[in-house]
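call fold(seq) -> tokens
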Amino acid sequence: MRLPNALLVLTLLTLAPSPAGAALDAAWRAIPPSVPAESLAIRLRAFELRPTSRIGAGEAAFALGQFHYARGEYRQSSDAFLRASGRLTGADRAEARYWCGLVALALGNGPVARGAFAEAPATRRALAQFGIALAWDLEKRPDKAFDTLRQLLAGDAGEATAPALHRYAALAAQLHRDDEARKAGARLAQEFPGTLEAARLAALPPVAPSSGEVAVQIGVFAEASRARVLAENARRAGFGNAAVSERRSADGKSTVWVVRLGRYPSREEARLAGERVQRSLGVGWQVEKP
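ret:
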């Protein structure tokens, strides 16, 4: 099967961020549009190995990184952008670091992505901050991702606003911040109607309103002694109403012992209690109707 020619590859690259300056486009402009895609990597690598007064090694490596990125060849793309960032300076180097962050996300490497996005140019500030939030998500740190998005959305998030609101609402629901989830969803629907992000959020089950008494469950045990130890530890940590109760298991064949912190008038207060007990005892928690 014949691969797309250079002109089509350049069109695909418009889906990704544009270069910071004309210098980073020099390698692409030097290649005739008629050159087939299977020859592009060879041409770009030749520019990198034999730089000229118009096309430097860093600029050629940057273009090669873009080429591999457009084809989903992220390992090769990462190597090329790393070489580019080592050879470029100033705003062009910062742009290469931003692309290093994009590739690291595609490879599932959160720490590397965060480090690269931290060096992105000022013109990419909002998108880079959104990238950092996604990186925290990859590292299974929804709390960090949530805080990063909250800071982003407190200012001008630019073109990152719609996807940031979508992810913020999902994380808020995950972290039991129901009011914030609803507010983010309402803002997304109002400011960006008809977008893919708004449609995805609308397809999710609605967050139930915060009303009535709720409880915070911090453990379910098959042994009563283990449940009592956890309840006692919770009381010592300042949760005086922590208690153990019995209930039938899900299959109805045995008894389990449930540890709860007590009852709270709203889900928000229950969430705050859950976060405190997680910090104090290192246990998981969930809000439930008692």
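The CA atoms of residues 253 and 263 lie 28 Å apart.
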